[in-house]
Structures are given as structure tokens and as C-alpha cells.
Amino acid sequence: LTLERELRDALTNGQFEVFYQPLVDLGSNDIVGLEALARWRHPERGLVSPAVFIPIAEETGLIVPLGEWVLRQACRDAARWPGHVRVAVNVSPHQLRQRTFATMVVSALAENAVDPRRLELEITESVLLEETDANLKTLHALRASGVRIAMDDFGTGYSSISYLRSFPFDKIKIDRSFVREIGEKPEAAAIIRAIIGLGQSLNMTTLVEGIETEGQRKAVLAEGADEMQGYLFSHPCPARDIDALFDGAH
Ligand code: G
Ligand code: G
Ligand code: MN
Ligand code: NA
């Protein structure tokens, strides 16, 4: 309960920060995007994990202002980074349900002069559990404005595949639980291969999450995935580290 109260104040007190984890092209090893991941710098508790505060924010509805803050910060940061690099932002069901969500996103991009095609919104199956006309309309409106829509944690829910019928995603992010068993169980590679094939036949970019070893990178490259994300390339890091990365590049 105290955590909930502190969470409310944390936004106004500027205790949140956005970390970024690179999305990497498997063929070239180039950074093609950066996923924005919220962090809470608590004055006493230190860095609080989103695994702790995102569920509380969802329950209390605080995810709406928090999610908007993350999106706006991601747009401000993206404005300093090269134009070919995308930013990916997670969207919770609560946010999508706001009538003003699509216009809020478009205005955040415009205010920072960021091309909508540089923004990727990541939604999980829980968003589509409410497959309402209003939700689908919002997603279509965003997509019409140029924003890309990715299905996050693909394969963890019960109906990931059926949602591919209801909405034309631009990307699927294959959940890291599949990659963990590569090299141990032949079934794991077979399932990843099948999901990548599904994505390809639907014209969607495929990204594999949770790549921690060179062996895993080689395996998913061989299966034809487009992109990867994981500790092998980089942990999530502060925006200034990303700034340094691009300032140092020629
Ligand atoms: O950053 P970390 O790797 O610990 O993320 C833990 C979880 O919190 C992930 O499921 C991630 O999607 C979620 N998360 C992190 N930042 C945000 C955010 O800004 N909005 C939403 N909705 N979820 C987030
Ligand atoms: O749920 P979502 O995919 O949006 O959140 C990304 C989460 O995955 C974050 O908590 C991030 O810290 C975590 N993550 C990113 N790369 C790796 C990895 O290589 N291994 C593991 N175990 N977790 C990862
Ligand atoms: Mn995500
Ligand atoms: Na994910």
C-alpha cells in the first residue's frame, strides 16, 4: 500500500527514468532500434524493477500517466538519435483503452519532430484479450499514421496465433522462453522455426528475445529471424550511454 502511494508521487518528483535495450539486426549486427524500459530510482529502495511497479501501476491506473511519460521521454531521446534508429515503447491495456491514446501518440511524435515510422508500439496478448472494436480502431489509426505495431512476448499466452488474424502486426517478438531451450531440446528450435515461418508468410518482421549466447544468436540467424534482443548484445542501459554510442559513431 505504501508502495502505491509512493508510486503516485514518484512521477511528479521525477523519480522515473527510461533505460534502453538495443534491437539488433541479426545479419549485420547493426542497432536498428531501442526498447524503452521504465526504471524507478527510489530515494531509499534504490532502483526498483518494473516487474514490481508495472503491475501496481496497472492495477491502480497509474500506468496511464506513467506510460505517457515514458512515451514522451522516448520521443525526446529519439529526436537526438540517428533517423534510421527506431524506438520501441510498451503499451498496457489501460493505455490503449483511452479514447485519446492515438492522438496523444501522434502529438508526442510531432512535438519532438520524430517520424512516426520510427516508433514501434509493443503490445502483449493481454491487450488483445479485449479485442474490442475500439481497441482495434485505435491500433488501425496508429498504423495509418505510420506507427509500427509489434506483438510482444509472442507465444506465451493462449491465443497469440489467433490474434494474428485480427490485426496486421508489423513485427512479432518471440518470447525469450523459447530461446532458452535451444541446443537442449530439438522441439525448441522447431517451434522457433515455425513461428519465424509464420511471421515471414504474414510479412511481419521477426525478432527473437532473450539472446544470451553466441550459440543462440547463430541458431536464430540460421532459422531466418530478422532481429534479436538480449544480454549478449547489451543489457538495458541509461539514455546517456546510447548518446555516447551514437556520438562516437562516424
Ligand atoms: O526492464 P525489464 O526488463 O525488467 O522489464 C520488466 C517488465 O516490465 C517487462 O515485461 C516490460 O515489458 C515491462 N515494462 C518496462 N517498462 C515498461 C513501460 O514503460 N510500460 C509498460 N507497460 N511495461 C513496461
Ligand atoms: O516483457 P518485455 O519483453 O517487454 O521486457 C523485456 C524484459 O526482458 C526486460 O525485463 C529485460 O530486462 C529482459 N531481458 C532483456 N534481454 C534479456 C536476456 O537476454 N535474458 C533475460 N533473461 N532477460 C532479458
Ligand atoms: Mn517489450
Ligand atoms: Na517481450
Automatic annotation (TrEMBL):
Q: Which residues form the EAL domain?
A: 1-250
Protein name as annotated: Diguanylate cyclase (GGDEF) domain-containing protein
Task: Tell me the organism's taxonomic lineage.
Answer: Bacteria, Pseudomonadati, Pseudomonadota, Alphaproteobacteria, Hyphomicrobiales
Regions that span the bilayer: none
